[in-house]
Design a protein that fits this description.
heterodimer, A: about 280 residues, alpha/beta, Rossmann fold, two-stranded antiparallel sheet, 9 helices, 7 strands, B: about 325 residues, seven-stranded mixed sheet, five-stranded mixed sheet, 13 helices, about 40% helix, globular
Chain lengths: ~280, ~325
């Protein structure tokens, strides 16, 4: 069995800085993509991939691996950077994001990118996929766990709640949803465009165990992942409050940085902050 | 008297048969398992049967997740909900990922009857065949349904199988060969070819008998696989008879007829007349009356055959 590395918090924070620097450079090079939504997910991803997941980058299809599904597929630059730093493919590949012939498509493609569990990018679909993986695990009596990351804007998709109902009905306690609650969607603030609040009450109503955390606090993130694993008989959702564009002052909490890549000059300013 | 069996009944029986042999087979339904007949599998193998409630989008992607773990996931509902409600899940998650999900939908066509237009799916062939990499099959009877379900298991990747609610005559035999993408001629004639799928194959055979009495000899092709369509047989029969009629229980836009016309126009252009539903919704009524109203009867095929023959180059 392959275990996670279990780094201390300082090391995790250092990894996160490396990932954020990759994200900024990748998007500047690509000339398009989603910096705000990628940067808000970084700490949740780093904690998961370095300290929690049982996975084997040399054997991405290892049948007993824990699974991670990125339902908010537009945040894939962060996931690609984490996968590359974990050894799923060369870090040099990150420079090819969104280019013709690249293994790193604008939204995740499982057929060409090692470590991607499902092709996606169309919002609302990942939790259902995660449920299918979780049901297969129960059927096969395997103890792997399945994690699905969703955005808070994504919660407006009705299919999320179909999946929430079904996961609870099937007592999928091997399934853990992570909500990257950065408070923003493409057209503006969640509360202005389509409020998904109060998020925790909705999930409780659907029969889920709910953990609310600061999505940039490693101690809180790690303890939430541990708690989720211990909850039996129902699925767990971690509602993680995050900051869109986290780490780059001029991107933080700015609607405009949802889907706009930084210019060369902006990327340099961002990288100067990410040290 | 020809035996009458609904294709959906053969589906449930085939699932039970396969479920015994192959432990990787799982079945999902959206609260229609008695109608789609997947309940037969659910009764026999409850641990491998997932009733997902009235939530088709979630069902499709749950099947996708199961398929990523090596399961062969059969997903069933009425065709309008499976292919219409959940089209984008099929496109973006199942087909784009190349997953081993078998979508077997029942209640296709106006032969659904009294439930009316909302439940009579006449667009599903078009909806499914337009997705890159998708395979689309519509068996003509219960015997061929069993074979198509077996073939779906052997087939790697996504497939759509179109079944009906109403009983249809059994016109093929157990020993007849079946493989996806390989059509067969059920009878041969020199004057015109009728290319049909599903319930219209039986009507095409009746039409051929009627035409024969008037001195017109028709070839009848059972085109059970609409995608990938059997180009070879189409070009071969077109060269032999120089006039083609297509027949399907589906809108004319994007169905079997347009697939046949695409092949023939690019390879061997001959007059093509199409039997199908022309830009209308269905309505309540018994199947036989609806077939008359929407011009799907053998008599309609006979008229189309005569038109096609009349258009041949002298």
């Amino acid at each position: 069995m392959i275990k996670s590395q279990c780094l201390d918090i300082k090391s995790l924070e250092e990894r996160a800085m490396v990932i954020r620097r990759h994200v900024v450079r990748m998007l500047a090079k690509a000339g398009s993509g989603h910096p705000g939504s990628s940067l808000s997910t970084v700490d949740l991803l780093v904690a998961l991939f370095y300290n929690k997941l049982r996975h084997n980058p040399q054997q991405p299809a290892w049948p007993d691996r824990d699974r991670f599904v990125l339902s908010k597929g537009h945040a894939c630059p962060a996931l690609y950077a984490v996968l590359a730093e974990n050894g799923y493919f060369g870090v040099d590949k990150l420079d090819t994001l969104r280019q013709f012939g690249s293994i790193l498509q604008g939204h995740p493609s499982m057929k060409i990118t090692p470590g991607i569990e499902i092709s996606g990018g169309s919002l609302g679909q990942g939790l259902s996929v995660g449920l299918g993986i979780a049901l297969a695990g129960k059927l096969d009596k395997k103890d792997y766990r399945t994690y699905v990351m969703l955005g808070d804007g994504e919660l407006a998709e009705g299919q999320v709640w179909e999946a929430a109902m079904a996961a609870s009905h099937y007592k999928a306690d091997n399934l853990c949803a992570i909500i990257d609650q950065n408070g923003l969607q493409i057209d503006g603030f969640i509360h202005e465009i389509m409020s998904s609040y109060p998020i925790p009450d909705k999930w409780r109503g659907f029969g889920w165990h709910v953990i609310e955390i600061d999505g940039h606090n490693y101690k809180a993130i790690l303890s939430a992942y541990d708690e989720a694993e211990k909850i039996k008989g129902k699925p767990t959702v971690i509602v993680a409050k995050t900051i869109k564009g986290k780490g780059v002052s001029f991107m933080e909490n700015q609607v405009d940085w949802h889907g706009k890549s930084p210019s060369k000059e902006e990327a340099e300013r961002a990288l100067a902050e990410l040290k | 008297m020809t035996e009458m069996i609904a294709t959906r009944q053969a589906y449930g029986d085939a699932l039970v048969e396969l479920g015994e042999k192959n432990k990787d087979i799982v079945v999902l339904d959206a609260d229609l398992s008695k109608s789609t007949t997947t309940a037969k599998f659910g009764k026999k193998f409850p641990e491998r049967f997932f009733n997902m409630g009235v939530a088709e989008a979630n069902m499709m992607n749950t099947a996708a997740g199961l398929a990523t773990c090596g399961k062969i996931a059969f997903v069933s509902s009425f065709s309008i909900f499976a292919t219409g409600r959940a089209w984008e899940q099929i496109r973006n998650t199942i087909c784009y990922s190349g997953l081993n999900v078998k979508i077997v939908a029942t209640h296709s066509g106006v032969s659904v009857g009294p439930d009316g237009a909302s439940h009579q799916c006449i667009e599903d062939i078009s909806l499914m065949k337009t997705i890159p990499t998708m395979t689309v099959v519509e068996p003509c009877d219960a015997v061929e349904t069993r074979k198509s379900i077996l073939a779906a298991v052997a087939h790697k990747g996504p497939i759509y199988i179109r079944l009906g609610r109403a009983a249809v005559p059994v016109i093929t035999k157990k020993e007849d060969p079946f493989s996806i993408g390989k059509a067969s001629a059920l009878r041969n004639g020199k004057d015109v070819a009728i290319v049909a799928c599903g319930a219209l194959v039986a009507n095409a055979l009746t039409a051929a008998d009627m035409l024969s009495k008037e001195g017109i000899e028709a070839t009848v092709v059972n085109m059970h696989t609409i995608k990938p369509i059997d180009r070879e047989i189409l070009v071969k029969v077109a060269k032999q008879v120089n006039a083609v009629v297509t027949a399907e229980q589906h809108v004319l836009d994007g169905g079997l007829g347009s697939a046949v016309a695409t092949v023939l126009s690019g390879n061997y252009p001959v007059p093509v007349e199409m039997i199908g539903i022309d830009n209308r919704f269905g309505q309540s009524g018994e199947p036989d009356l609806l077939f008359k109203e929407y011009h799907l009867l053998p008599e309609d095929i006979v008229l189309a055959a005569k038109r096609a023959v009349g258009r041949k180059k002298k």
